[in-house]
Amino acid sequence: MNGGAHRAPSRVGRRKALAGIAALAVAPAAAVVVTQVRGKTTAAEATTGPSHAPSAGASTPAKGSKPSGVAVVAKGGGPVPYVRGRTMLGAYLDLEGLSETEAIKLRRRQTGRDPRILHQFFAWQDTLPRSLPWLPDDSYPMISWRGTDHGSILSGKFDDLIARNAKQLKRLGRPVLLRWGWEMNGDWYRWGGAQNNNNPAGYVRSWKRIREIFADQKADNVSWVWSPNWNDKPAAAWNAKLKFYPGDDMVDWVGVSGYNLNRELPGALFQGIYDLYGGKKPLMITEVGSVDRGGRTKADWTTALATWVKQHPAVGAVVWFDTDTHYNYHEKWRVDTDPESLAAFVAMAKDPHFAA
């Protein structure tokens, strides 16, 4: 999903100003804990997300109701390892009126566990964190790091910035997931192909340059998460998500954003990327959530997501967009909007499959 500043300018939740809810009308998210990031977001950084509906046919999935027949990756993930047939559960966690520590404590009380992934968002020229004192000992941080135009990266203009942030993440001293330049196959971000002369090759070269600088700084605690949107916008051949793939040697996890906005079932959102990459890379649903249409609609969709994930063993992580503070957007994506929805999420959290 994509969008502007996440909350008031004094407390920018970079996830959405920096994140993929920009793709709200086009993408779902995953279950990893994401917390707010403090700082400022410039007008240039805060792009407005699209208002169009998903591509035709997306709400009527032909596949995904049964286990996939593709061969499943057996290992991978880099420093944040994939456990075959098990799924880490986390969230982007930003709850109105609560600090990071308080929000984590609330979810721990409700679910009986800490999130396995805690997701944060940062602007391109931010300084990435070197410490996260509120992070639970058994949780992995996931850093969604905004990009910029390809030409600026490839010119070497930002090499020092990249090296400095590589050192920052190295100093964390623990495995970290890095999700740079997500939803590049959408038209709402400066690093997307549509805003760079319809040229996916520039994104691939930028990814490789950033990863090579991290390697030079020996930031070997970083797992690299390549994370397109579930559908391509525009839906043109040049913009197919696989055109942006940097290569098996450059990616540790394949991620995907996808939201139930227009009654899309989980298979409609995620089966396509599963079929493309589930045989060679562990998959992560990096952003996911569901619109609540009353009754048990949100609870039932959460249960359907858990069922789909359990049928697809290459899915090693799910990160829910667990927030009620998204700037200028009425939907409350948090998991406890009603007792039924919370119960469905708690059931997923307590399922042994999600105990990775």
Overview in brief:
This protein is α/β, with parallel strands linked by helices and 356 residues long. It contains 8 helices and 9 strands.
List keywords for this structure.
356 residues, alpha/beta, TIM Barrel, nine-stranded parallel beta sheet, 8 helices, 9 strands, 25% helix, globular, disordered N terminus
Query: Order of strands across the widest beta sheet?
Result: 1-3-4-5-6-7-8-9-2
Global Rg = 18 Å
Query: Kindly state the mean pLDDT as a whole number?
Result: 85
Helix-strand string: HEEHEEHHEHEEHEHEH
How many separate domains? 1
Query: Under the CATH scheme, which architecture would be assigned?
Result: Alpha-Beta Barrel
Strand content: 15-25%
The residue ranges in which pLDDT falls below 50 over 5 or more consecutive positions are 1-20, 25-66
Describe the biggest sheet?
A: 9 strands, parallel
- Helical amount among residues, as a percent range? 25-40%
Discrete helix count: 8
Task: Label the overall shape.
Answer: globular
Total beta strands: 9
Distance between the termini: 26 Å
CATH superfamily label: Glycosidases
Task: Just give the CATH class.
Answer: Alpha Beta
The oligomeric state is single chain
What are the SSEs and their pairings?
Elements: H1 14-17, E1 33-35, E2 88-94, H2 100-111, E3 117-122, E4 140-145, H3 150-154, H4 159-171, E5 176-180, H5 200-216, E6 222-226, E7 253-260, H6 266-277, E8 283-290, H7 297-310, E9 315-323, H8 339-350
Parallel strand pairs: 1-3, 2-9, 3-4, 4-5, 5-6, 6-7, 7-8, 8-9
